[in-house]
């Protein structure tokens, strides 16, 4: 069992440890416990009773024993780190994300900073030091350095793109004629190969240990439930099996530092986009699992599945988190590989291109994740609109492109009306402000943007509406010849609207090309959440039932909550934030 998988995982949390385990940590403080092999077969009560008793008995026997399958006491990697620290070794971790804090008991840092880990007793919060500053920091915000033996003074010497400053590299020798840099590259290559094999084992266990058994119990699971819980993980498993075979063909066992693995990532960059669907579905999987595990028979069933497959003691939701993390680890691993690859190496250009390619894959996944987060905000917005009619916005749209006030001119008599307009992908929603309470909006109508073309209108008298206009534009329906005339207050506002209409068409085309869509389950859940919040009048509090206790008294009080970070944010400059709230914050309904 490798340290890459031997730790407890919490629902909706990042792993406290990356799969990039420091050299040597996978051998410290480990004992392997082998449980009796249980024959595969239909996981029904009869089979379980004949072999090992009922599902409940199996579960209770396991829990009453004095060991946990795979590692003693859980958190084996964490135990290994603390053993190294207690032995006087120095353990370093690299920050994956910025940790911004105003608390003087917490340790702030930037992505890429190197932190000395001084105490890893707690799963979620570690105690660390940067220069002369010490404090708590979230364990999930860092990854342990692959090369713990790398001199600290050499580590920051890197330039943009992950390349190391060559002024001092390659001068020392390691082992049989290898430079230190070659040995470091060997460590990274070995890590990539070993974690990939471990990951394949994870996927196989999920597909054969859980999905296979769940399908035998039609009385407990519907196909829709299984799709929600496991997403497209079987497709990912098939893809990764081919990918790991390609990696192993490029792996030079005798001289790992000479391996040329960059081309493998380039070859599979398109296939890796299937992770987007999985990552988008993952929150739904967690919610469905949370609902099912409130019933004891599902708890017993999932535990029995784990034992039948001889899997380590990690809950199902923990196993289902690994694909989300894996796709985000690739850019980090490739950045480190590039750092230890000489420009003269035959693999250098491929690794450099692979790093950019995998960053692009991660960005695509991030963007889709952002879009899915926006649907909750759109649902909340719709729930605040009075007299809503027709289908929900989410039936056709998932992005607010632009919003603002316009004058709409209608037939007959060229009647003008001040209205608030919200441009989403595929549709333009029209609302009216309340005459007395301007913070209330009433639904009036919507326009299908798929049938419209945008016409810029010059200032002066418009022939179609027989009226003088300024800062105007038209929406013309190609099928019905219906025309809508709008006027902005200022020329710059008109230009912003024209640009927004271009962006809307571009977004629709991009979604078609990338296959982006929202599932019916996600739409229903967003509307349900918005309805609940609308009735209560305030957002639901996020409960965090963890850590009511204090750490050892040598440290200040342990922080009570974990900072919230996107699981998809990589150690690179932050992407430009969504303009959703910048657009919608101008609207008074959100000041209620």
UniProtKB/TrEMBL annotation:
Coiled-coil zones: none
Major location (coarse): cytoplasm
Residues of the SH3 domain: 88-147
Single GO molecular function: guanyl-nucleotide exchange factor activity
Gene Ontology CC annotations of this record: cytoplasm
Positions of the PH domain: 399-506
CDD domains, A to Z: PH_Collybistin_ASEF (cd01224), RhoGEF (cd00160), SH3_ASEF (cd11973)
Region (Disordered), start-end ranges: 155-177
Subcellular location as annotated: Cytoplasm
Basic and acidic residues compositional bias, start-end: 155-166
Keywords: Cytoplasm, Guanine-nucleotide releasing factor, SH3 domain
Organism of this sequence: Herpetotheres cachinnans (Laughing falcon)
Gene Ontology terms describing biological process: intracellular signal transduction
Protein name from the UniProt record: ARHG4 factor
All residue ranges annotated as the DH domain in the record: 184-368
């Amino acid at each position: 069992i490798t340290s890459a998988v031997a730790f407890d995982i919490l629902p909706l949390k990042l792993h406290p440890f990356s799969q990039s385990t420091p050299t040597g940590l996978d051998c410290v403080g480990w004992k392997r416990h082998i449980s009796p092999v249980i024959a595969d077969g239909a996981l029904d009560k009869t089979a379980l009773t004949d072999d090992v008793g009922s599902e409940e008995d199996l579960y209770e026997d396991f829990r009453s024993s004095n060991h946990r399958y795979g590692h003693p006491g859980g958190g084996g990697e964490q135990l290994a780190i603390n053993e190294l620290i207690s032995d006087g070794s120095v353990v370093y971790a690299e920050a994956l994300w910025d940790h911004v804090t105003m608390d003087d008991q917490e340790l702030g840092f930037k992505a890429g900073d190197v932190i000395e880990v001084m105490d890893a007793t707690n799963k979620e919060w570690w105690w660390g030091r940067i220069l002369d500053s010490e404090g708590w920091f979230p364990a999930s915000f860092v990854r342990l350095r692959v090369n713990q033996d790398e001199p600290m003074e050499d580590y920051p010497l890197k330039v943009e793109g992950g390349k190391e400053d060559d002024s001092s590299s390659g001068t020392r020798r390691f082992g049989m004629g290898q430079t230190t840099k070659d040995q470091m590259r060997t460590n990274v290559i070995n890590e990539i190969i070993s974690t990939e094999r471990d990951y394949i084992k994870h996927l196989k266990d999920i597909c054969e240990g859980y999905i296979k058994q769940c399908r035998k119990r039609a009385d407990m699971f519907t196909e829709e439930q299984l799709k929600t819980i496991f997403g497209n993980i079987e497709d990912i498993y098939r893809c990764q099996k081919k990918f790991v075979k390609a990696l192993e063909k490029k792996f030079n066992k005798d001289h790992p530092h000479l391996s040329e693995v960059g081309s493998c990532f380039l070859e599979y960059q398109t296939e890796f986009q299937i992770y987007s669907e999985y990552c988008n579905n993952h929150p739904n999987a967690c919610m469905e699992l949370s609902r099912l595990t409130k019933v004891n028979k599902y708890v017993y069933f999932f535990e029995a599945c784990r034992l039948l497959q001889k899997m380590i003691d990690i809950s199902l939701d923990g196993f289902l988190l690994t694909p989300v993390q894996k796709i985000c680890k690739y850019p980090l691993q490739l950045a480190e590989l590039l750092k230890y690859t000489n420009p003269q190496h035959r693999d250098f250009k491929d690794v450099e291109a692979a790093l950019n390619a995998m960053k692009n894959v991660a960005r695509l996944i991030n963007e889709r994740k952002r879009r899915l987060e926006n649907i909750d905000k759109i649902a909340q917005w719709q729930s605040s609109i009075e007299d809503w009619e027709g289908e929900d916005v989410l039936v056709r749209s998932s992005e607010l492109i632009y919003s603002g006030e316009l004058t709409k001119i209608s037939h007959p008599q060229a009647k003008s009306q001040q209205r608030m307009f919200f441009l989403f992908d595929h549709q333009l929603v029209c609302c009216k402000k309340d005459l007395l309470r301007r913070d209330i909006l009433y639904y009036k109508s919507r326009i299908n943007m798929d049938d419209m073309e945008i016409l810029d209108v010059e200032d002066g008298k418009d022939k179609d509406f027989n009226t003088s206009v300024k800062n105007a534009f038209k929406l013309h329906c190609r099928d019905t010849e219906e025309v809508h005339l709008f006027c902005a207050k200022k020329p710059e506002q008109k230009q912003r609207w024209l640009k927004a209409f271009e962006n809307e068409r571009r977004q629709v085309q991009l979604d078609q090309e990338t296959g982006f869509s929202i599932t019916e389950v996600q739409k229903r859940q967003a509307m349900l959440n918005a309805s609940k919040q609308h009735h209560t009048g305030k957002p639901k509090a996020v409960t965090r039932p963890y850590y009511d206790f204090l750490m050892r008294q040598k440290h200040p009080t342990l922080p009570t909550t974990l900072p919230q970070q996107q699981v998809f944010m990589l150690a690179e400059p932050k992407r430009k934030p969504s303009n959703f709230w910048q657009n919608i914050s101008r609207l008074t309904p959100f000041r209620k």
